[in-house]
Amino acid sequence: GSMTFGHVEILGGADTPYEKGIFNLEIVVPERYPFEPPKIRFLTPIYHPNIDSAGRICLDVLKLPPKGAWRPSLNISTLLTSIQLLMAEPNPDDPLMADISSEYKYNKQLFLQNAREWTERHANQQRRVSKPLEEKINQSGTATTNGSTVQKRKGSNMGREEKKSRLDP
């Protein structure tokens, strides 16, 4: 099925440990959207109880009922707002990362310090050096395979267009 991919940037909210960070997210819109929610994941590492190391986000609006709260009336900008709210107010009772969750619950100062350090390390570079960072992403296995499948799809379309233009005198 045809899926559309998009990338968006979320800015870390003021008064959160993610402040001043720029976080890249990947959005995959399924064919059955809006009856199925888009898949959204963080490409930028983030230190958060509800976001795992693969960037997957535990959020009810990203899941179909009965477990989730996705409705066809929601759209991507609503989801991004919900993700920003989750960044500002983690939900430690529904964690993907148990360690970070208990740290958030029982040692909040340490959590805030770690989250700030991660933001500085991972989410600030994008502003300074966007080119080398893209290369880094391409070297890692998962991103490359995703990239190449997308390119293949795009390539086949381009091929068709090129053939058309070749036929023209």
UniProtKB/TrEMBL annotation:
Name of one Pfam family that matches: UQ_con
Keyword Nucleotide-binding: yes
Region (Disordered): 121-169
Start-end of Basic and acidic residues biased regions: 159-169
UBC core domain location: 1-124
Molecular function GO labels: ATP binding; ubiquitin conjugating enzyme activity
Keyword terms of this UniProt record: ATP-binding, Nucleotide-binding, Transferase, Ubl conjugation pathway
Compositionally biased residues, Polar residues: 138-150
EC number(s) on file: 2.3.2.23
Keyword ATP-binding belongs to the record: yes
Enzyme active site: C58
InterPro entries the record matches: UBC, UBQ-conjugating_AS, UBQ-conjugating_enzyme/RWD
PANTHER family: UBIQUITIN-CONJUGATING ENZYME E2
Family: Belongs to the ubiquitin-conjugating enzyme family.
Protein name: Ubiquitin-conjugating enzyme E2 T
Organism the protein comes from: Hypotaenidia okinawae
